[in-house]
Amino acid sequence: MIYTLTYNPSIDYLVTVDSLELGSLNRMRKATYLYGGKGVNVSQVLKELGIDNTALGFVAGFTGREIEEGLQRIGIKTGFVHLPEGHSRINIKFHGIKETEVNAPGPFVDAVSMRALRDRIAQIGKDDILILAGAATANMENDTFASFIAELPYRDTKVILDTTGEALINALSYHPFLIKPNIEELSELFHEEFSPNDLNGIKSAARSLQDKGARNVLISMGEDGAALITEDGEIYSRPAPAGMVVNTVGSGDSMVAGFLAGYLENGNMEDALCLGVCAGSASAFNEGFARGDEIMQLYRLVR
Predict the structure, then answer these.
(1) How many C-beta atoms lie closer than 10 Å to residue 18's C-beta?
(2) Active site residue 253
(3) Which 3-state string (H, E, C) describes 63-127?
(4) How confident is the model at residue 211 (pLDDT cuts 50, 70, 90)?
(5) Is-contact 59 31, C-beta < 8 A?
(6) Does domain 2-8+37-85+108-302 have CATH number 3.10.590.10?
(7) Quick one: average pLDDT of 124-149?
(8) Which element (helix H / strand E) includes 32?
(9) Active site residue: 18, 253, 271, 293, which one?
(10) Where are the domains of the chain?
(11) Residue 204: φ, ψ to 5°
């Protein structure tokens, strides 16, 4: 089984406006909502690609119940811990203007609920895969993801880690199977500006992360595609397919899902990278997440 863990899931309210004027009445041209949070995003794209998975994390209040029930309605298993107080987030994403987001803080996670989540992590098996995704939040320590990996009963369980900063660095000693910083996050980690054209510089930075414990490093680069530095020393890169970008929110999470789907198909890292880039691009070409057939159509076109 594949497990995704989202510390702070959300309902993402997508609002399309022609303009936005502060201090004035603004009218929406269109509105919809999605279930959000990086691990939840991965879960939804995995399901679109026909891969069963279970979403873990914390939910609270009526919004948390909607997240849980909504994911179940589309066929995703859930193992969320329900917090005794507060509500899961509602985030606002503006479209039709320069991409703008307003993200809410998450509910407080008490010690009993944290222990309940750790108990669920302790049930993950040797042949399972755990995806940890998201940034450290205000009530989350920078070693939380590292401690989640330490709770796994088997060291052979594959872990995919999509976070950054100290939360990423602190978890590298547990040898995650894959990490996925984007190129901006890579630049922040090394206090150096990396260019998508500088594959040697990117490879050198990835090697430094591998020296700290990462096995494979996938670096997303937006419209420039992605680069993959594998644990056996290979480096692959793929440009993003051409298309009209509508919404980049969740495209990196879609890439993680596509990469994993490709890897599970035949274990070929280059194929996995290609499907990952196609999944990320296909979602960027949509207001929400791409359907599985849209991803595979793009994959067949560029493969």
Answers:
(1) 10
(2) yes
(3) HHHHHHHHHHHCCCEECCEECCCCCCEEEEEEECCCCEEECCCCCCCCHHHHHHHHHHHCCCCCC
(4) very high
(5) no
(6) no
(7) 87
(8) strand 30-36
(9) 253
(10) 2-8+37-85+108-302
(11) -60, -45
